[in-house]
């Protein structure tokens, strides 16, 4: 059977014998809305837990709209127009609206990238800029000790509206909701404190109940930097909007999470010998820092002692300096796991997450990254998915079971 995998802007083919293939994990079938704009308008017309946005804002108020940066598939250019129309209908002048791209610890945009993300909104006189971790206001400390340091423009606004797409997050449970604020427009020290809880058992993909990372995020927002309104979407595997939800930062977000589970949570009968996983292509496999998310979902599907074949273009290499340095400075998985427990650092936490997978399974890696830049004890490089699969089959034998996750960052395996 021939399987197609997204790889940057390309498609790669993989041939797997029917006797080996035990499943291809795909999101559930979702009808594409006939009119995306109508879908968005319906969500805005029927918010969950709040009045409509045009009933919340007032003329003369400074409104910030926080949205995702270019490393996320969030279709800001589609979601912004109906929202902006309602703000202006409520009397908010374009000069009082600012779009803030939540950068977290990611690189800043080029001006061309910002304009591309804004789409038609760029011509409406709406000011847009990247969040700046060097210009923040300290608002307090959460009960878990996380400093709430928020980009000044966001913290001082009269109204805060958060956009985002909801998908699985490997330790915050899900993306979207309050994550636009924390870690989106926060500082490295605040993010480091929040993310340090990732090693706790309940900090896992698809988990909200008792998740310390998500609870810390929502406490920071609710106590110190309240969000007036969220507007979140769920995307299908082709990055098209299939669901939209608006309203309260927690109640509306949970509705989106329930929709995601109904379509993207994949039940499997048993773990596989070999799991082939891809992020589905650009922009999610821009670098290894982002591609790691697919690997982390794949760990739920591979047996102890098995192999994960991670496929991602990673044209920008590692994508984060601390992440790269931790990987290069380590000599074993134990080095990385021990280091993150003793000295949690952002960037390093993802290196440790890879090591945690590698400690129980082999990882074969197909990417554009030169072999000499990737430690082969951690990620064994292969020139193609087919070569990697052939090597894995030679290791486990002709009867080895193979599971494929073409959209690994968006599908979460659960063993029945």
Layout of strands and helices, then pairs:
Elements: E1 2-7, E2 10-15, E3 21-24, H1 36-45, H2 53-56, E4 63-68, H3 76-89, E5 97-102, H4 111-118, E6 127-130, E7 136-141, E8 147-151, H5 152-155, E9 159-165, E10 168-169, E11 173-174, H6 188-195, H7 212-224, E12 229-235, E13 241-247, H8 251-264, E14 265-268, E15 272-278, H9 288-298, E16 302-311, H10 321-329, H11 333-342, H12 348-358, E17 362-366, E18 380-382, H13 385-396, E19 402-405, E20 412-415
Parallel strand pairs: 3-19, 4-5, 4-9, 5-6, 9-12, 14-20, 15-16, 15-19, 16-17, 17-18
Antiparallel strand pairs: 1-2, 7-8, 10-11, 12-13
- Name the CATH architecture of the largest domain: 3-Layer(aba) Sandwich
Category by helix and strand content: alpha/beta
- Name of the CATH superfamily of the largest domain: LarA, N-terminal domain
CATH topology of the largest domain: Rossmann fold
Mean pLDDT over the full residue set? 94
Helix amount: 25-40%
Count of DSSP H/I helices: 13
- Classified by CATH, the class of the largest domain is Alpha Beta
Neighbour order of strands in the largest sheet: 3-19-15-16-17-18
Contiguous uncertain segments of 5+ residues: none
Gross geometry: globular
Oligomer: single chain
Kindly provide the radius of gyration, computed on alpha-carbon positions and rounded to a whole number of angstroms: 21 Å
Tally of DSSP β-strands: 20
Cα-to-Cα separation, first versus last residue: 26 Å
Query: Beta-strand level of the residues, as a percent range?
Result: 25-35%
Detailed description of the structure:
There is one protein chain. This protein is an alpha/beta fold. The protein folds into two domains: 2-26 and 265-415, LarA, C-terminal domain (2-enoyl-CoA Hydratase, Chain A, domain 1, Alpha-Beta Complex), CATH 3.90.226; 36-235, LarA, N-terminal domain (Rossmann fold, 3-Layer(aba) Sandwich), CATH 3.40.50.11440. The chain is 31% helix and 25% strand. The protein is built from 13 helices and 20 strands. The strands form six sheets. The protein has a six-stranded parallel sheet with strand order 3-19-15-16-17-18. Strands 6-5-4-9-12-13 form a six-stranded mixed sheet, with helices on both faces. Strands 1-2 form a two-stranded antiparallel ribbon. Strand 10 and strand 11 form a beta hairpin. Helix 10 crosses helix 12 (348-358). The chain is globular.
């Amino acid at each position: 059977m021939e399987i197609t995998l997204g790889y940057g802007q390309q498609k790669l083919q993989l041939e797997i014998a029917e006797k080996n293939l035990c499943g291809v994990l795909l999101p559930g079938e979702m009808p594409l809305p006939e009119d995306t704009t109508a879908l968005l308008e319906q969500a805005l017309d029927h918010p969950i837990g709040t009045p409509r946005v045009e009933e919340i804002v007032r003329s003369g108020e400074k409104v910030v709209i926080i949205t995702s940066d270019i490393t996320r598939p969030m279709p800001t250019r589609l979601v912004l127009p109906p929202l902006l129309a309602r703000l202006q209908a409520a009397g908010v002048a374009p000069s009082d609206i600012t779009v803030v791209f939540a950068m977290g610890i990611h690189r800043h945009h080029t001006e061309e990238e910002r304009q591309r993300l804004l789409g038609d909104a760029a011509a409406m006189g709406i000011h847009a800029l990247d969040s700046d971790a060097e210009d923040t206001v300290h608002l307090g400390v959460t009960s878990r000790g996380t400093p709430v340091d928020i980009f000044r423009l966001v913290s001082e606004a009269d109204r805060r509206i958060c956009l985002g797409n909801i998908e699985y997050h490997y330790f915050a449970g899900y993306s979207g909701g309050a994550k636009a604020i924390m870690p989106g427009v926060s500082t490295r020290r605040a993010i480091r404190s929040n993310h340090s809880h990732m090693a706790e058992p309940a900090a896992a993909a698809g988990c909200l109940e008792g998740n310390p990372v998500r609870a810390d995020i929502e406490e920071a927002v609710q106590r110190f930097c309240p969000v007036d309104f969220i507007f979140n979407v769920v995307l299908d595997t082709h990055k098209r909007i299939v669901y939209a939800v608006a309203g309260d930062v927690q109640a509306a977000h949970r509705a989106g999470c329930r929709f995601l589970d109904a379509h993207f949570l994949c039940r499997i009968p048993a773990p596989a010998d070999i799991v082939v996983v891809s992020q589905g292509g650009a922009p999610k496999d821009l670098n290894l820092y982002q591609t790691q998310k697919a690997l982390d979902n794949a760990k739920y599907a591979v047996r102890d002692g098995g192999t994960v074949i991670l496929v991602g273009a990673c044209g920008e290499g590692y994508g984060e300096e601390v992440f790269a340095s931790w990987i290069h400075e380590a000599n074993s998985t134990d080095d990385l796991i021990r280091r993150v427990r003793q000295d949690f650092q952002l960037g390093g936490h993802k290196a440790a997450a890879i090591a945690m997978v590698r400690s129980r399974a082999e990882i074969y890696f197909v990417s554009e990254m030169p072999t000499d830049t990737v430690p082969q004890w951690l990620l064994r490089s292969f020139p193609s998915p087919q070569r990697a699969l052939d090597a894995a089959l030679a290791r486990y034998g002709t009867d080895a079971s193979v599971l494929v996750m073409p959209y690994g960052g968006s599908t979460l395996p659960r063993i029945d």
